[in-house]
Amino acid sequence: MKQTIFNFFVLLLVISSCKKEELPEPIIATESEIIETYASIKSIIDNNCVQCHAIAQNPYIVDFTSYANLSSYLDNPDNTMIDRLNSDVEFYKMPPNGELSQTDKDLLISWINDGYIL
Ligand code: HEC
Q1: Which of 15, 36, 103, 105 is the most buried (most CB within 10 A)?
Q2: CB count, 10 Å around CB of 108?
C-alpha cells in the first residue's frame, strides 16, 4: 500500500512538472543585428553625395555613382570616408554643408564597417 501511495505521488509529480511548459523567448532583432546592403544605403549616397561625386559633375573628385566605384574607393585602406562623415572640420567634412542626419550617417558607417556588401 505504501508503495502504491508513493508511486501515486511520483506520478503526480511527473505530471505536474510536465505541465510547466514555458513558452520560448521571442527573438528580438536589435538594430546592431541588421546588416545594411548597398541597396539599403544607395539612396543616402544618391541624395547627398552624387550631386558632386559624379564624373559628369566633377571629374576631379572620386565618383560614387556606382557600387564598383564606391567599393574600390573603400578598398583603399587610406580612404577618409568614415573620418569625413564624422568630421566637423570645414573644408574636410562630408557632405560639405554637413546636412546628413545622424541616422543616415550611422547607416553609412555601419554599412562600411560591416564590409560594404552589395
Ligand atoms: C557640394 C559637393 C559635395 C558633396 C555634396 C559631397 N562631397 Fe565629398 N568631396 C567634395 C569635394 C570637392 C571633394 C574633394 C576635396 C576634398 O578632398 O575635400 C570631396 C572629397 C570627398 C572624399 C575624399 C575623397 C578622396 O580623394 O579621398 C570623400 C570620402 C567624400 N568626399 C565623401 C563624400 C560623401 C560620403 C558625401 C555624401 C554623404 C559627399 N562626399 C558629399 C564635394 C562634395
Answers
A1: 36
A2: 21
Rounded to the nearest angstrom, the distance between the alpha carbon of 27 and the centre of ligand 1 is: 40
| 65 residue type, one letter | T
Name the band, by pLDDT with cuts 50, 70 and 90, for residue 22: confident
Determine the residue of 47, 49, 71, 89 to mutate for testing ligand 1's pocket, defined as the one with the most ligand atoms within 8 A of the Cβ atom.
49
Sequence-distant (≥ 6) Cβ neighbours of residue 70 within 8 angstroms: 38, 45, 64, 116
Which backbone phi and psi does 51 adopt, to 5 degrees? Answer: -65, -20
Residue-range domain boundaries for the chain: 33-118
The whole model's pTM is what? 0.79
Joined together, the cell numbers standing for residue 115 give: 564590409
